[in-house]
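Input for the complex:
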Amino acid sequence: MRLKMRRSPQTTLVLAEFLQCEQEWRYGYDISRATGLKSGTLYPILMRLAEHKLLETSWETTAEGRPPRHMYKLTSDGLRYARAQTAAERVGVVGEPAFGGVEL
Amino acid sequence: MRLIRRLAVRISKKSVERAKPGCKEWAEGLEREVEFIEGDWRALGWATGSLGVLLRNPPKPLGNAEEIARAGRLFAGNREHVPPMILLLMTFQLFDNVDRLVFRWGRMDHLQQAGFAIAAVSAAYLAMVGWMEHRMGKRPEDMDDGAWIEFYRREMVRRRDLFSGFGILFPIAIVSMCAGELLGVEGSTRPYLTACFTATCIVMLRLCSWPAERFQRKVDDVDSILQHGGRQA
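Predicted:
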């Protein structure tokens, strides 16, 4: 199935951040701090990635009776896509087409 | 807790309350993060950003019975707390056009008279459809999800029937009202402008889905979820 996924520098930034620790669940605020993206920019990207089944979400029950936190991790398709995107950025093709495709 | 932090928490809680069914999980995720943000101002920035996310992102299709019940409650809440905007705006528009036709009839040429007459008739029609669309059946009294699902489906069917019956011309009436207003403007190019505007709108109307189709899709969503259970929450 071929899906359209907007390829923007911010999306690549988020994907690169996920690749830093591929198997770990990440919190939204931590990704925001690491990438410097505000919630209004970061969450639409996360929502889009999840919509394309590139990102999985989960709730973590924290200690001390605090409410659960929402966590995010790339799926195996997401990891493939992230590697392709970050590699493409290194060779300088990111940003050329407004819309790219991801093969799932 | 400081005032700014309290404001941030309040905004994020509101965004969870107002979140459309498909966005609720994300709204809750954004809300929980506020507790883990060190600075108060930063927390406020995060919370206001989350409001933007919910406004910008269209809701996903309803996924399960719980989401339908929630959509029913949201729908009823909106109907009770939001005034009938179409009815109010179109009534104002109708009075404005009638006022022009009655008191300035002699000072207008035939095109202007025709334009304002078309606009007045269209506004009257739109006001009626707006009034009928805003009306709502009796909302369920209890907290039972089943009653809310039934209520939501009934309201969607009512709107589908309205827009495939009396209200079928709703999109065309909007175009004709704007075209009538354009025709009423003074200037020699207005017939051409009106023709161009109308042609463009007709092309755009063909590209958009009509209101009845949108409500039919919601009814289909509900039926499919009730029959097959929908996706997992």
